[in-house]
Design brief:
Elements (H helix, E strand, L loop, with lengths): L1 H5 L3 H15 L6 H18 L2 H21 L8 H14 L2 H20 L9 H16 L3 H15 L12 H16 L6
Helix pairs in contact: 2-3, 2-4, 3-4, 3-5, 4-5, 4-6, 5-6, 5-7, 6-7, 7-8, 7-9, 8-9
Length: about 190
């Protein structure tokens, strides 16, 4: 997909990306390989410069991540990095309304998987990182208040109060997550 973007043939490149996404829907494709392929597809579609085509690809990728996560009995939270990538690119290439819609969709999906499913027992790091990208994306769109609210929830979850339920994030996961939050906060201006 990166090669298709580099040659500048937008229509042909977008069709290649769409085809790769379609092929990654096959049941024989494992979730880890699928996450790598989908990440490359989002990157490639964003580089092609066709905003509508990129958003179409991201929509299909988000649906595929959701169906893969719902259909997996194991921990596939690494797939949430693909959702974070969609947020990053949506904000970069889209209009505010389109970008905000992607952010809200990813935020809702991540929140659902934290509260309402067996996935709440899975590694929380990737979900929080995707949420941090949602917070940063909202701030980049001028919605600093909601962006800060998301980042605040992440910090509260990373360091729960005594007696609170949930998985405390520790070690390298905590360091990486805090780096993501700081990176997000650095993009939020003003007095906040």
């Amino acid at each position: 997909t990166t090669c298709a973007a580099a040659f500048g043939r937008v229509g042909a490149g977008l069709e290649i990306v769409r085809d790769v996404v379609r092929r990654s829907e096959e049941k024989t494709i494992g979730p880890y390989f699928r996450s790598e392929v989908l990440s490359a597809c989002v990157e490639g579609a964003a580089r092609l410069g066709d905003r509508n085509g990129a958003f179409e690809v991201m929509d299909r990728v988000i649906k595929l991540v959701e169906s893969t996560a719902r259909g997996s009995a194991g921990d596939v939270t690494f797939l949430f990095d693909v959702l974070g990538l969609c947020v990053d690119h949506a904000v970069t290439i889209g209009a505010a309304g389109e970008s905000a819609a992607i952010i809200k969709r990813v935020e809702a999906l991540v929140e659902e998987w934290m509260d309402e499913s067996p996935a709440r027992y899975w590694t929380p790091f990737y979900r929080y990182r995707a949420l941090a990208k949602c917070g940063r994306g909202l701030a980049r769109l001028g919605q600093e208040g909601p962006g800060l609210e998301i980042l605040s929830r992440i910090l509260d979850a990373a360091n729960p109060k005594p007696g609170a339920t949930g998985t405390k994030i520790t070690g390298l996961d905590l360091i990486d997550l805090l780096k993501e939050v700081v990176r997000s906060l650095s993009e939020i201006g003003g007095e906040q």
